[in-house]
Amino acid sequence: MFPTREDVHGIKRLEVLREAAASFNFKGYHATSMNEIAASLGVTKAALYHYFPNKNSLLAACFEHAMDAAFASLERARKDGRNGRERLVLTMSYYVAQLINELNCCVVLMEEQALEPEDHAKLVRQRDRFERALRAFIREGIEDGSVVPCDPKLAIFVILGAMNWVPKWFKPSGVWKSDQLNAALAQMFERLVSSSPVADMARDVGDLPSRAEPPVSLISLARRGRGPRTGQDRKIDKKIKAGGKR
Amino acid sequence: MFPTREDVHGIKRLEVLREAAASFNFKGYHATSMNEIAASLGVTKAALYHYFPNKNSLLAACFEHAMDAAFASLERARKDGRNGRERLVLTMSYYVAQLINELNCCVVLMEEQALEPEDHAKLVRQRDRFERALRAFIREGIEDGSVVPCDPKLAIFVILGAMNWVPKWFKPSGVWKSDQLNAALAQMFERLVSSSPVADMARDVGDLPSRAEPPVSLISLARRGRGPRTGQDRKIDKKIKAGGKR
DNA sequence: CTGCCAACTAACCGGACGGTTAGCAAACCG
DNA sequence: CGGTTTGCTAACCGTCCGGTTAGTTGGCAG
């Protein structure tokens, strides 16, 4: 079955979201104009309003996406981890993995105050719930002996800070691969909270084992950053479609 | 000697800077308008242009201030610390202490890409130098046995991330005092990099010993957030000045 | 072939924001 | 005292940006 019109719409919508998330992360929400997002995707500003009602809803969707990933990671880690420490470290690991290859290097957006009041309130509720769950892992770990006695609040702030700083220096195209980063961060967090001496850490993150390259989005990648579409592009579209069906 | 006109000018300039830094940290550079900064100080926008040529130079001054504090902390720690680990942890401790009470809770500004190209280049140079010095502390510590073998780059990224996240959750008016925060962060960083088992950490940051309240700025505090000055204010100014001389 | 709808562009609108100008009042200086 | 400078306000300007509108094109259903 070929993709229906609705499928295509959904995929393009996601493309817009990824582009926006990448820009918001890199330059900040207010420093990113709708025109810029549109131009990077090779369309005009007005086209974006077919997928999102306004700029703010784009930001809200980014946060929603991130929080979904957070809770999914939480659930997976709850099952896979055997004690508080393992669950905590696994949560962060799953979380960063999911966001890095779904939302194009974005880890966590920082300008939550730019959200509309309702969206903001919702985010704060969800984030609090997430952070409470993480702190609970710390307490659980202290009780089961896997985590060193410490202030759970502070420990989680430190870990989240390190996580949220990642987009500022990590580029998926750099020497460190995303799964190397992920493993190295897990080692660091483990050392931070573990009650017992931790196995040696990597002396060089680049030496960690790494799987194959993560998949890259296909749609609109060829057109990225080449200005608005022209009549010529429509013909190309037609050709591609015809070629695809053959 | 009473303050000269230049003294007053310098003090007010610093007040503007503090207010701007606090706003930039809280809402972000682009989300803060000159009107808002001015209003919080009880003046009009145009008044700000007596102290800074434009908005961007305000941001540049913030970064300059922060980098000065960074290098000062580095030097102090180089002398006070007895090995790589101590020097690293002391640097961060001095740094956060200085910024918290000089720049009103600001730790590090994040929107460096908003700077003018020249300012940005200068900042990047300085920041790289700072980070290289921190990484050198890690390497020094690994050699002298005070730091666990690890990737210096990653360790510093993790520590800086935790630091730069502080302004997102720490409020000087909250239950944790700034020196409690400082001590607790030092414990965390120590545990992260130390080669040997670390003394127990605080179970509750609020239980850490704390000195008296940090000093609060006096100038313009009374007027903060009460709209532009009117003729009435001038008379108040006069009274204050007269009273001060008596 | 015909009519409709989705997708998109080009052009435009209103408002906010950075920055400027003119002018006034107090402070300083001889 | 008079003349100049400083510190500020009120009003204004140009630009950019979020969002809208009208119109065009191509695919698709009947």
- Rg calculated over all Cα atoms of chain A: 21 Å
Separate helix tally of chain A: 9
Helix content of chain A: 55-70%
Assembly context of the chains: homodimer
Q: Estimate what percentage of residues of chain A fall within beta strands.
A: under 5%
Helix vs. strand class of chain A: mainly alpha
Distance from N terminus to C terminus of chain A (CA atoms, Å) equals 14 Å
Mean pLDDT value of chain A:
84
Instruction: Summarize the main sheet of chain A.
Output: none
Shape of chain A: globular
Outline the low-pLDDT stretches of chain A.
214-246
Order of helices and strands of chain A: HHHHHHHHH
Care to count the β-strands of chain A? 0
Q: Main interface pair?
A: A-B, 41 and 41 residues
Report on the structure:
Chain A contains 9 helices and no strands. Chain A is mainly α and 246 residues long. In chain A, helix 1 crosses helix 2. Residues 214-246 of chain A have low confidence and may be disordered. The interface between A and B is large, with 41 and 41 residues. The structure holds a DNA duplex (30 and 30 nucleotides).
Task: Provide keyphrases for this structure.
homodimer; 246 residues; mainly alpha; DNA-binding
Structure in a nutshell:
Chain A has helices spanning 5-27, 34-41, 45-48, 55-80, 84-102, 117-144, 152-169, 178-193, 231-245. Chain A is an all-alpha fold and 246 residues long. Chain B binds a DNA duplex (30 and 30 nucleotides) through helix 1, helix 3 and helix 9.
Secondary structure layout:
The structure is a homodimer of 246-residue chains.
Chain A: H1 5-27, H2 34-41, H3 45-48, H4 55-80, H5 84-102, H6 117-144, H7 152-169, H8 178-193, H9 231-245
Chain B binds a DNA duplex (30 and 30 nucleotides) through α1, α3 and α9.
